[in-house]
Amino acid sequence: MSSPAPLSQGERAVQAGHGRMHFLMFVVIFCWASNIIAGKEALKDIAPLALAQLRVLGAAVIYAVCFLVTGRMRRLQLTRRKWVFLIAMALNLNSEVGPRFYAAERGLRGAIYPPASG
User: Fold this and answer.
1) Which of 92, 105, 117 is nearest to 46 (CA)?
2) Of 27-41, 61-75, 95-109, where does mean pLDDT reach its minimum?
3) Would you state the pLDDT for residue 44?
4) With contact defined as beta carbons under 8 Å apart, do 51 and 43 qualify?
5) How far apart are CA 78 and CA 66, in angstroms?
6) Is residue 106 within 8 Å of residue 48, measured between CB atoms?
7) Would you state the torsion angle of the CA atoms of residues 68, 73, 74, 79, taken in this order, to the nearest 10 degrees?
8) How far apart are the C-alpha atoms of 66 and 47, rounded to whole Å?
């Protein structure tokens, strides 16, 4: 029996990539499975739409942190006016849509939409 031939640099990179791929697949599956369990437990105390909003907020925070850490923020070239518009739209959407979904889910339609007089 002879010993295996030494791997080239490209083959070592492929093996390292496979190891990283398997690790990341494990992390994704673990997070996905724990998210299902945590979601079922959270639904005992939190309304479903509120939980959905919290999940979206968590994802947005993670994306924002990754965006800032990777240095891509420096490459984003928006004018001050566009930044103000973007922030205003985000705040408006959060303040308008969130309470309405929550109130509709709780049966508080009159608290957000007053009854029509007439």
Assistant:
1) 105
2) 95-109
3) 87
4) yes
5) 19
6) no
7) -140
8) 29
Q: Is the pLDDT of residue 1 over 60?
A: no
Q: Residues 75-100: what's their mean pLDDT?
A: 74
Question: 82 by DSSP, 3-state: which?
Answer: helix
Residue 8 is classified by DSSP as: P
Evaluate whether 49 touches 101 at the Cβ level (below 8 Å): yes
3-state secondary structure of 116: coil
Q: Is the pLDDT of residue 45 over 60?
A: yes
12/18 Cα distance (integer angstroms): 10
Q: How far apart are the first and last CA of the chain?
A: 95
* Higher per-residue confidence, 39 vs 76: 39
Q: Reduced to 3 states, what is the DSSP secondary structure of residue 65?
A: helix
- Please write the tens of the pLDDT for every residue from 99-110: 665 565 555 555
Write the burial class of residue 100 (CB in 10 Å: 0-12 exposed, 13-18 middle, 19+ buried).
middle
